[in-house]
């Protein structure tokens, strides 16, 4: 059954927009009525009403995150954390305002509200539409730590320093208000930049709504400043819409992502050439700490106690900040080296694929031309044997038939390598196919003193493939590993040396990887290994390191053709401890689902 299109599915974004608009309109009407009837706004109404939008946005963000993958899932989860932390701050504010007779000027909820900006900044930094390589994970985490450290420094420097030194409430209120406005402006501009730089049309729509929500949050802060300037802010008035509307707009953005099925990043992450620029930004934040202290001491007028505390704080914060920057630079250099190695490896794989594709076209044509005369030879040989079963020449005819069958088998293998045989696919458990292949080869392996071990991952998805062809791949790989072990026993060590007397061992493992989603099967051995110069040729037809009587050199070529037919990849390398490992990667279809290990 095909999934419904965006047009046929009920538009969740429209429903959320209507529900959010109705809620804000109902609150506006109710606040006006209550203020008119009672003669003053209801603080309980305003505070409790402000709890609903962030809770709704958090729930919707978690719902979208559960259907998402990769960086997109991280983005929505961080948005949910932002809304949850804001809800906690609003709950603390409500407790003091409704049950304790009023919120003190130095409110306990202020640091909670400010802390909610850290997961939101981390979400914007991650960018939901761009996937990041796994090897950038450590660097991204350190970048988020830098964001959190700098946010903590700014809050403690400008706000907490006044509170702990007994500064005036007016100075505290002025600083906290401007800090919140600066925070909202930075986040709004940041989101607008993401919207402008996104290339996917769907994500541009979602990020545009998201940046609109943050812009409304900034405007709400300005409205709060005006209210405080001309009087005193009291919850329960229309001004509260400035705190509720941003979450309603961001909820519409989350619903739009759900409607458009934007569950995975649509773009690749930034190129490694941009990493030095990000490193400069990290160093600039480090330099900004003492710069902020110097500018503040020259521009702002504070008590000597606050000035001394701020200077000490700036010096103290540079220590953990500097440590994180140094570690990040080390990891960045290592990541750049790894990226360079991966680029070289990718180029080699591309060259190998192009070479094998060219060989496949040639082999396909030759095999096709050979197949017809071979079938004629086989047919006439069978007829002659059947017509003269007691003929003295039947032994010679039998030899002709056997060798023709052998040649036909080689042609079939060449056709498989060229990908000219359509596989008969169905849903299979990879672990079960691996076990079946091992069961058929294990008896011979034990006879020659080789142990086959399995390390199979649990709950792998079903995969759509030709079971018999996949078992053929496993059979060839196991036979190849056994031959390598026997060659090592005979002293034919080609890679890192393994003592001849070491027991032969073949390890077959399976696992699932999510970026991109695929199942990986590895067959490793402690055999003779492969010469470095031969690693790029092991999948070529008729290439073999064995003797002329030990095979035609088509085993790994057949594996290559079958795996490629299934949209996968196969590669080989030497193990650091000796022997070789061959890796098969097969894509997981979107309809696959987890099942227990067989």
Counting DSSP E segments of at least 2 residues, the number of strands comes to 9
Q: Which structural class do the helices and strands define?
A: alpha/beta
Report on the biggest sheet: 5 strands, mixed
Low-pLDDT windows of residues = 1-9, 590-598
Beta strand % = 5-15%
SSE series: HHHHHHEHHHHEHHHEHEEHEEHEE
Percent helix: 55-70%
Descriptive overview:
It is a single chain. The protein is of the alpha/beta class and 598 residues long. Mean pLDDT is 78; it is low at 1-9 and 590-598. It is elongated. The protein has helices at residues 12-38, 43-49, 52-67, 70-99, 110-115, 117-126, 137-164, 169-197, 201-230, 241-259, 275-299, 304-387, 394-417, 430-447, 467-489, 555-565; strands at 130-131, 267-268, 426-428, 450-455, 463-465, 504-514, 517-525, 569-574, 580-587. The strands form three sheets. Strands 4-6-7-9-8 form a five-stranded mixed β-sheet. It is built from 16 helices and nine strands. Helix 1 runs antiparallel to helix 10, helix 4 (70-99) packs antiparallel against helix 6 (117-126) and helix 9 (201-230) packs antiparallel against helix 10 (241-259).
